[in-house]
Design brief:
This protein is α+β, with helices and mostly antiparallel strands and 146 residues long. The protein has four helices and seven strands; from the N terminus they run H-E-E-E-E-H-E-E-H-E-H.
Length: 146
Amino acid sequence: MEREDALEHIYAAWVARVSAGERWLTGCSRVGGRSIIIKPRAFSIVFSQGVSVGIVGLWSSLNSMHVANVPEQEGVFELADSSRSTIYFGRSDDLKGRLQQFLDTTDPCFRRAAHFRYELTARSEQRKRELLKEYYERHDRYPLCS
C-alpha cells in the first residue's frame, strides 16, 4: 500500500468512527514501518521514523478526579507544566499513590505540574532510565525537576 493510500485509509477509518459517535482524541497506526499518529483536534497527521516520543498517550489534568482513575500498579509516569512541557519522569510500584503525592506537594518545582500521563510496565526502573535517555538525546538536558 502506498503511503498516500495508507493515509487516506486511516483517515477514512477515523472519520467513520467519529461519524458513528466515537470520541477519538488520538489514533495511532503503523504503515510501512512508520508510526502514523492522527491528531483529530488539529486534523493533522504526523509521521515518526522510529523516533521514540517517551510515554505515548493523552495528557490528563493533574487533579484528584483524574488521579483516582489511575491503577494501583507498577509503571512510569510523566509530569508536565501547563504548556505540556515535560518536567519529570517518575516510576512507582503504585502509580495512583505516587501521583496523589504530587497533588499536595510543597516542592516549588513540582508545584508547576499541571498534567500527567502514565504507562504500566513491570520494568519501571529500566523504562524510566530509557525515558530519561530519550529526553536527554532530544533536548540535550534532563527535565526541569529531575
